[in-house]
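Design job #97: recover the sequence.
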């Protein structure tokens, strides 16, 4: 029903910048939260940043001050601007959507396929 497609990953040198984009399509409700998670080899998937439909944001401590999450509600897109990248930021980054249908009182989570971000030193 909902599809998330990430783009913008790639290889960048430490200190550089990268901008990830996530396009959501399907039945997306007005009340929702979108975000970015990442998973590095031998590590658990971790939250990077989230943003609500009201544009309230939350960031992992490790990326505060360096990453900025934003969204375009009209286009159902979410972005992650990553600055001052570090090698430890290397991971597969996943876009996520928490879709809340208040009329049916259900919340459904969706995930994208992920995009690789590699930061070289």
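Job complete. Output follows.
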């Amino acid at each position: 029903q909902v599809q998330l497609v990430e783009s913008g990953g790639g290889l960048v040198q430490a200190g550089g910048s990268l901008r990830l984009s996530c396009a959501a399509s399907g039945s997306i409700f007005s009340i929702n939260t979108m975000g970015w998670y990442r998973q590095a080899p031998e590590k658990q998937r971790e939250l990077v940043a989230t943003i609500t439909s009201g544009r309230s944001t939350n960031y992992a401590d490790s990326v505060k001050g360096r990453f900025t999450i934003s969204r375009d509600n009209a286009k159902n897109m979410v972005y992650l601007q990553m600055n001052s990248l570090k090698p430890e930021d290397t991971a597969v980054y996943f876009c996520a959507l928490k879709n809340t249908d208040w009329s049916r009182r259900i919340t459904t989570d969706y995930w994208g396929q992920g995009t690789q971000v590699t930061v070289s030193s």
